[in-house]
Specification:
The complex is a heterodimer.
Chain A (H helix, E strand, L loop, with lengths): L12 H10 L37 E4 L3 H11 L6 E5 L3 H6 L8 E3 L2 H5 L6 E4 L6 H10 L3 E4 L7 H13 L5 E3 L7 H14 L3 E9 L11 H7 L10 H5 L1 H12 L5 E7 L12 E7 L5 E7 L7 E7 L2 E6 L2 E6 L14 E4 L2 E5 L4 H4 L16 H27 L6 H8 L9 H20 L2 E3 L8
Parallel strand pairs in A: 1-2, 1-4, 2-3, 4-5, 5-6, 7-10
Antiparallel strand pairs in A: 7-11, 8-9, 8-16, 9-10, 11-12, 12-13, 13-15, 14-15
Chain B lengths: L11 E5 L5 E8 L4 E5 L3 E6 L9 E3 L1 E8 L4 E2 L5 H11 L7 E11 L10 E11 L2 E14 L2 E11 L9 E2 L2 E17 L4
Classes of the chains: A alpha/beta, B mainly beta.
């Protein structure tokens, strides 16, 4: 988990410039947060891994081989040091679908078989959200590193159980599938914002718009019911948690604050097929100091797809997928580097294209700096971080045990110091807090009420 | 590896504590200074003298300490794991997994000026890095606090003395000279 995720870790301009002089932050790509949604990004779009060839090997299993699980398999398959040794899905057809993607993997319909396999060091859990808990708890109990998709669970009780177990499992690496936290591009934009270019935070706006039903069909009625877990309140955390969790988390991450209240409303406006999960929702997430995020998601209209805009008194920053722009106010201080930056017109506004390292490169060229081809998707960055961090974690534990013996006190303290160099990612705490915000917002939407979130709401 | 215990009846053994220790390695490069840190120093120390009554001169002591190489971590805000990888490769960390020190000689420099003041010594011992053993001399201090003992010291060395090629990162090249500093936390071993 990167340091800049921690409360109080605000970066000033000096730290940002210093960090920028060390890092070779590259331009990277990322599909905008449609995680766990029906149409996962096309695997062919993802470029090859830049992972070092001599990186330590972590043998992986994927549990849940639906659309998103197959995307995880595609991504793992690009890593030379993450062989997929097992795949699991209780629906056998899904196992046949991944035969070609992971030919060396042992297929199983029972996750307990996977977890009892000593060859498996790490598991990636991509089952439907309401089925995460049993798999994750058993995986941690079995001493496996765990990558659990976001949100952690469909209820606070399940999410808390997962967070507690992950916190207690000192000897393994736990990562939440909030892939933007691992995305080098978003980490670059975060540093830029924390350096003060936006000025005083004012508000944020984010949306996820798609014209699709979310309904799945199957010849088998029982299977069809399983497939449509997103349409039933008993199993679905709703649009705001299934897709919005990433966007809500981004705002909390950038503002470096926990929300203090959530309010929302939602309706079934388009897909009136018996579902009780709204297909159109609006929410207001309030941060300290009167800063609010206005969030909208719908399955009834695709206009402007998905984006996030963060507004400050000096400028607004818009993120759309792998790209970002800054819109400066006329009275905001000059930064210098923006003079050389590539600009794009948005109706009556001019966006300054945000390119990693542009501020460093500016003096060396008179030409506007162009955005280059994406290097890796946020998912690739997250999976690479998972594999590298799991290997580092295991090595650190082995070093500690070899030095002081099994069961010696102080492992947690040692890991806290040693694992500061983890590649950026979302750990259990980020996953838990993002899940709390998303689930409570979904609750506010279903109740049409404002719900207060005090400090105790985030206690594990 | 484990040396025999001291012959004297008064020998007191201290074992490394899992927490409270730190080893820092600092160097320079053509661009800027750098530092790596580890929070693990394992091993033990045996003292064949009473620290409260010790007189200046050679004292009886033995010690072995070790730091796993891959627990040494860069202290920079970005790119740390890349830099660590460069360092581990230069040190062949998968082959030579530990930095080790074996104490051979300890000389008390002066009587402590106050009861709580740390004892000051000159030490001599074998430092093993990258599979190469060199005898080094370094000043060390020992501070006793109840059953706890913290011993600290610093020594300068060169990478090439240990057959390590100073690593490069693009056009940036590390200087050969290093400074190794440690704070080693130990606790009196329970009576057998």
């Amino acid at each position: 988990v990167t340091d800049n995720t921690k409360p109080g870790a605000r970066l000033d301009r000096r730290s940002f410039l210093k960090g920028g002089s060390v890092a070779t932050v590259m331009i990277v790509a990322g599909q905008v947060g449609a995680p766990a949604a029906e149409e996962a990004p096309k695997p062919a779009a993802a470029p090859a891994s830049s992972h070092p060839p001599d990186a330590p090997v972590v043998r992986c299993a994927v549990i849940g081989c639906g659309t998103w699980g197959r995307e995880l398999i595609h991504t793992l398959a690009r890593l030379p040091n993450a062989p997929i040794v097992a795949v699991c899905d209780k629906y056998e057809l899904n196992l046949r679908r991944v035969e070609n993607l992971a030919p060396q993997a042992r297929p199983s319909t029972d996750f307990k078989t996977v977890l009892s396999n000593p060859d498996v060091q790490a598991v990636l859990v991509a089952t439907p959200t309401h089925l995460h808990k049993d798999v994750v708890l058993a995986a941690l109990q079995a001493g496996k590193h765990v990558y659990c998709e976001a949100p952690l669970a469909h209820t606070l009780e399940d999410a808390r159980a997962i967070a507690r177990a992950a916190q207690a499992a000192e000897k393994v690496h736990f990562q939440t599938g909030l892939q933007w936290r691992a995305d080098p591009y978003r980490n670059f934009v975060l540093s830029l914002i924390r350096s003060g270019v936006m000025g005083k935070p004012i508000k944020a706006r984010a949306q996820w718009h798609k014209k699709q039903s979310w309904r799945r069909t199957s010849a088998n009625p029982e299977r069809e019911k399983e497939l449509n877990w997103r349409l039933d309140r008993a199993t679905s955390p709703g649009l705001v948690a299934e897709v919005g969790v990433h966007q809500l988390d981004l705002c909390s991450w950038v503002f470096n604050e926990r929300p203090i209240s959530v309010f929302g409303s939602g309706e079934v406006l388009q897909w009136n097929d018996g579902r009780d999960v709204p297909d159109t929702v609006q929410a207001i997430v309030e941060y300290p100091g009167g800063v609010r995020l206005f969030y909208e998601a719908t399955l009834a209209n695709s206009f402007e797809a998905e984006y996030e805009v963060l507004y400050g008194a000096d400028s607004a920053v818009m993120l759309r997928g792998a790209r970002g722009w800054m819109f400066k106010e006329a009275d905001s201080p000059a930064l210098g580097w923006e003079m050389h930056a590539k600009k794009e017109e948005f109706f009556q506004d001019t966006g300054i294209t945000l390119i990693a390292n542009a501020s460093k490169q500016a003096p060396a060229t008179d030409k506007p700096i162009e955005a280059t081809a994406p290097e890796k998707t946020p998912l690739q960055a997250a999976i690479e971080a998972f594999v590298a961090n799991a290997a580092n974690h295991a090595e650190a534990v082995a070093d500690f045990v070899a030095s002081f013996g099994e069961g010696a006190q102080g492992l947690g303290e040692f890991l806290a110091k040693t694992l500061k160099n983890h590649l950026p990612c979302a750990g259990w705490r980020e996953g838990w807090e993002a899940t709390v915000v998303a689930l409570r917002t979904n609750e506010a939407i279903l109740k049409g009420q404002k719900l207060l979130l005090d400090k105790s709401a985030f206690e594990v | 590896m484990w040396l025999p215990t001291l012959s004297t009846q008064a020998a007191t053994r201290y074992n490394a504590e899992p927490t409270g220790s730190e080893m820092r390695v600092e160097g320079k490069s053509t661009l800027h200074g750098w530092m790596v840190k580890s929070a693990i120093i394992s091993g033990w120390l045996e003292l064949g003298f009473d620290p409260a009554k010790a007189e200046p001169g050679k004292v009886e002591a033995k010690a072995e300490a070790a730091v796993p190489v891959q627990t040494l971590k860069s202290q920079i805000t970005a790119g740390a794991s890349t830099m660590d990888g460069v360092m581990y490769k230069a040190m062949e960390a998968t082959k030579y997994r530990r930095v080790e020190f074996r104490l051979k000689e300890l000389v008390l420099k002066e009587k402590p000026t106050a009861p709580d003041a740390p004892l000051k010594f000159d030490s001599k011992g074998d430092l093993v890095i990258h599979g190469v053993t060199n005898t080094v001399s370094m000043p060390v201090t020992m501070k006793f606090s109840g059953d706890k003992l913290k011993t600290s010291g610093t020594v300068s060395m060169k990478m090439t003395e240990y057959k390590i090629e100073p690593p490069s990162f693009g056009v940036i090249k590390s200087a050969d000279e290093l400074t190794l500093t440690f704070d080693w936390q130990l606790a009196k071993a329970a009576a057998p």
